[in-house]
Amino acid sequence: MTPPPETGGLPAFEDHDAQQVKYTTCYMCACRCGIKVTLENGQVRFIQGNPNHPVNRGVLCAKGNAGIMKQMSRAKLDGPLRRKRGSERGAGEFERISWDEALDELTARLRRIRETDPKQLAFFTGRDQMQALTGLWAQQFGTINWAAHGGFCSVNMAAAGLYTLGQSFWEFGDPDWDRTKYFMLWGVAEDHASNPLKLGLDTLKRRGGKFVAINPVRTGYQAIADEWIPIRPGTDGMLALAMVHVLLARKLFDWQYLVRYTNAPWAVVCTPGVPGDGLVLRDDEGHPLAFDVERETWVDATLPGVKPALFGAWTGPDGRPVKTAMTLIAERYLAQAYTPARAAEVTGVPAATIERLALELAHTAFEEAIEVPCEWTDWAGRRHSSVTGRPVSMHAMRGVSAHSNGFHSCRALHLLQVLLGSVDVPGGHRAKAPYPKHVPPPIKPAREMAPNRPLKSPPLGFPTGPEDLVVDADGRPLRIDKAYSWEAPLAAHGMMHMVITNAVAGDPYPIDTLLLFMANMAWNSSMNTANVREMLTARGADGEYKLPNLVVVDAFHSEIVDFADLVLPDTTYLERHDCISLLDRPISEPDAVCDSVRVPVIAPDRDVRPWQEVMVDLATRLGFPAFVNEDGSPRYAGYMDFIARFERAPGIGFLAGWRGDNGGASLRGDPNPRQWQHYEDNECFFRHELPERMRFYRFANRDYLEFARDAGFNVTADPIVLELYSETLQKFRLAGLGLYDGPTPPEADRERIARYFDPLPFWYRPLEMDRTDEDYTLHAITQRPMMMYHSWDSQNAWLRQVLAQNHLYMNRGTARRFGIEDDSWVWVESRNGEIRAQVRLMEGCEENTVWTWNAIGKARGAWGLAPDANESNDGFLLNHLISELLPPDGDAAARSNSDPVTGQAAWYDLKVRVRPAARGESGAWPTFDAPAGRGDGLPATLRYATHAPKRLTRSLRDVLFSRR
Amino acid sequence: MRLGLVIDLDTCVGCNACAVACKQWNASGTSGPLTDQSPFGRDPTGVWFNRIRNYEVGHYPDSKTVHFPMSCMHCDEAWCVDVCPTGASYKRAEDGIVLVDPDKCMGCNYCAWACPYGARELDRAEGVMKKCTLCVDRIYDEALPETERQPACVLTCPTHARLFGDFDDPHSAVSRAVAERGGQPLMPELGYAPVNHYLPPRAPREAPAYERGPSLVDRVKDWVNQAVAR
Fold first, then answer.
1. Which residue in A227, A269, A476, A704 is a FRET match for A823, CA 20 to 30 A apart?
2. How far apart (Å, rounded) are the C-alpha atoms in residues A419 and A438?
3. In this complex, do A787 and B20 lie within 8 Å of one another by their Cβ atoms?
4. pTM (2 decimals)?
5. Given B11, B208, B230, which is nearest A304 (Cβ)?
6. Is residue B82 predicted with pLDDT exceeding 50?
7. Whole-number average pLDDT of chain B
8. A870 has a pLDDT exceeding 50
C-alpha cells in the first residue's frame, strides 16, 4: 500500500540498516516450518513464516511467533552440571563443571560399558528430530537399547500404516488438500502438522469441501468442522469398521483398485487348527496365488494381466480349502459384530449417522470421482493417460493411536481408505517421499551385540515373523524396554515409557547408564509419574541407586534434570545447526521431495554445546568405526563436516540437496563440502519437484518406483502391494496357537498373541477399560493445546499468559449428575491413585469423557518458573493416574499398559471417577517441593524490545483536520 | 481511507497465532515494549492488543464452539477518542486508524471505560494506554516487501482467516469479503460504527450421500467376480 500523500510525518520506525534477515527452521514443535528471522543488536526482532517454504508457506502458529520468549526463558541451562557429591537425586543440587571434565568422565564410563557389555547403556531420546543420527550413534556404540519417543507417542499409527500401506499420516502422507472434497479428522486436537493442517482446512473450506471431525471434545479444529462426531474414547476402530460394514453391504468399494493394488484377491488357506492356516497360498517359488476368473485356474497373483477373483472359496491346488482375503474381509465385517446398530452401542454415535457418513464417503469417492489427465506408466510398463481421483481424505493421530487397541483401529482406517480407492490418488491421501515404502520396510531390528562392535543393523526395524523378535532362546526380552519381545512384537519405535520401570526392577536386567535426550521422564513423558520419580531415587541393598547413572541432555531445566547425575546443556533451536533429513523424519510434500536445515541465527551466551556436536565428539573419543579413521584419528571435523561428508550408501547422505562437486546433483551424488552454504543461500530448504507422471499410484508407478530406488528411499523398484490382510500378523497368531514352524511364545503369552495378532483389523475394548472396576465410569484423556503443544519445554513467558493452568473439563450435564459445580475443585480417582484438579464445565464434550490440556501442569521449581506459579500449584498432571502396568489378568505377570501388538503407551485408556473436593480443599494435588533457591531473582516485569520505540505522536495536521 | 480488519469465523480455529504475532511485532514496535508482569511467576499478565475469546453456543451434542479474536475495531464513532481529556487518543484523518499519542496520555483509563470491546490495555510500567495500531509501523514501511506491508496478525494467520484493507474501497479484499460473505461488525447497535468486520461461519456443508437402501449381505455369495486385469 502506498502511503497517502498527507502522511508525511511518519517516522522511520525500523532502522533496517541495523537489522539483518536470516532464514532457518522453526523448532517450537515438530512441524518444522521455515522461518525468516529479523535480527537487531544481537537479539531477535521478529520471527515470521517464510513465504517460500513448502511446509508453512508464510504462515506461522502461536508457538513459532513466541520463539523470542524461548530464547528469553529462565529455564535455559547454562553449563554442564554434576550432582553434588553426597546430595540426593531429585534434590537438584549441582556443581558446575567444565565441558572437558564432563566429557572425560562420560567417555570413561561409556568406554568401560562398550568394552564389556554394551547393553548397559540405554539411550532414549524424546521429541528430537535427528533419530537418524542418534540411531547411528547407538548402532556404532553397539547397544540395542536405543529408541526415540515413538513408543509413547504414535507408533500405532506409524506401524499400522507401514504394515498396511507402506505409509501413514503426517510425515508419511497428506490429504490432497487442493482436490479433496470430503475430509475426516480422527482424534486430533493438534498435531505435528500444525500449520499444514490449518492451511489445508482453509483450502478445503474455501473450496466448499465437507469437514467431519471425530473427537470426544470440540475444541479448535472441531469448532470449524461441518459436522462434529462426539465419540466415546477408544472406539474409533469400531466406527471405522461399521462404515466398512456399510460399504460392503451396499457393494460400494473400488473393485479395480482392490484387484490391482492390494492383496485382497490373494488366496488364503483356511484350515483352522492346522499349521498353515491363514497363510497366503503360494506357489513353489513363494509367489502368492489367486484364482483367475477368465482362465479359471490358479495364477501367480503378482503377474501383470492376470484377472484374479476378488471373492470366492475353492479347494486349492494342494487340496487345502482357500478363500480370497476379500472374502474373509466380507465375512468379518458383514457380521453382526460390525453393524451400525452394534457400533452405535459401542461408540455412542447413532447408527443412522454412521450409515450416512459411510454413504457420504462412498458417494463422494465414486459419484464425484475426478479424472486427472496424466501420462504415467504402471509397474508393469503399461502406459496410462489419466488417473482416477477419489476425493475423500483423512488425517488421524493420537486420539486413535494412544489406546491399547490403537494398532487395529489405525489399520481399520486404512482399510476404509483402501476400500474407497483413495490412497495415493488425486483428492485422496497422498504419500510423501521417501514414502511409500514396501510393506513393511525391509529392515530387521538388531539382536546380536558384542563388546566394542557396532550392531550389524539398526536397533529398530520391522519384524515379519516370530523369528525376527529380539528375544533369547527362551523367548525372554533382550531389550531393556522389552520392545520386540512377545509382549510387544511389533514395537517398531521401542517402548520408552517402560525403560525406567524395567531398569529399576532389573527386569529383564539392570543397566548402568541411562542417557536421555530431550525426554522429560520425571514428568509428562512418564506414566505413573509420582512413582517413577521414586524409582529414580530407589536404592538397592548395597545402598547404591538402582539406576546407577542418569545422564540428561536438554537445553532447558525440565523436571528430569533434577534427577540427573550429569547434565549436558544443549543449545536452543536458534543457536545451532541441524538437519531435517530424508533419512529421518522428512518434510516432503506429495508433489516434491524436501529436506531442510537449521543454522544459528544468534550466538549462545552460555557454556552450552549443540548435542549433535557433542555426539560426534563422543563418537570420535570412543572410536566408533564410522567416526574415526583407521589410525583412530577423527574422521570428521565436527557435526557440519559429518553431515556434509557421511554417506549411508554411495552418494546418499543426510542432506539430499546440492550434492556433487558443484552442488549440481540432487538426492544422490558425491559429498559436497559447500552443501551447507547452498542450503543457507536457499533459505535453508531443498525442494525437488516430482514430475507429474510420478505423483500418483506411487506404489505401482514404475517411474516413481525406479526414482525411489535410485534415490535410496527403497531397496528395490518392485511394486508395493497394499496389505489389507496381514500375513505377518497371522504368523504371530499361529505361533500363539502353537501352529507355527518357528519360535513359539512362552506359555503366558500364547493366548494374548493368538488373540491380538489378527490378520484383519478388529475392535476390542481397550485392555485397561476391560479390566477396570465398573465404577470408574468416566474416560479421562488429554488434548494437545494449539498454542503450547511441544512448546511446553520452556513454559514460554508469552504462551503461558494464554494458558498457565489446565482445568479438568467435563460435560455440564454429567457434572450436574455428580453434583459438581463450575470452577470447583474435585478429586479424580483411578485404579492408580488420585489427584485434585479444578473443573471447567462445557457443552462440547462427550458425556462419558473428562479431559484436560496436555503438559501444562508442572512440578514446582522446574522450567525456571517461580515455585508459586500457576502451572505447579493449580495446574495438574493426569499422568499420576495412569499406571504403566495393566491391571493383572488372572495369574499372568504384569504387562505394560500398552498396545499388545506395538507396545504403544495406552495413555487414553484411562478410566476415572470424579467427586467434589471437601470445603476448603483447593489447589492441585499432588505437588512436589521445589529445590531451595528456585525462583530467586526472577524479574517482576519483562520489557522485551530490540530497540527504543520510534513513537508516533499526533501531527498538527491531524489535530486540525481529524473529525475527532 | 478506512483501514481495518476482516476476521473469518468460519476458519478461525482459535490457535492464538495472531495474538502472539501481534505481541511479538509490537514488543519492539512503535508502542513497545509491551510490559509483561510476573512473566515467570504467579498470574502472568501483560499488554496484548489482540486476544482470543472462546464461546460455546447451544447444548450438547449440538453445541457450537466459537473462537473470537478481538482487537481495536477502529470505530468510526470512536468514543474512546471523544472522552480522552488530553487529546492523546485520536483517529487519524487519512486512514481512520485509532492511535494513542504516548506523550499526551496520562493513563487515566477513560478510554478503556468508553470502549465496549475491551480493546485498550494500560501498560502499568509506563502509565500509558496502548492498543492495536493496525501495525502502522509495518503497513507504511516501504522497506518491507509489498506483500509483507500488513499487520503481523494478518501475515501470520495459519488459516488465512484475517484480511486487512481499505473499507472505503469497494474493490478491496476486505470490502469484497464483507459483501460476498455477509460480514458484520460486532454489536453495531451500540452505535460505535466499528470498522472491523467478522465473517459468519458458512452454513455447514451437507454432502450428498447414496440413498439408504437394503443391505446386500444376504447376496454376497452371489456377487459375480469382475474380470479386472491386475
1. A227
2. 19
3. yes
4. 0.96
5. B230
6. yes
7. 95
8. yes
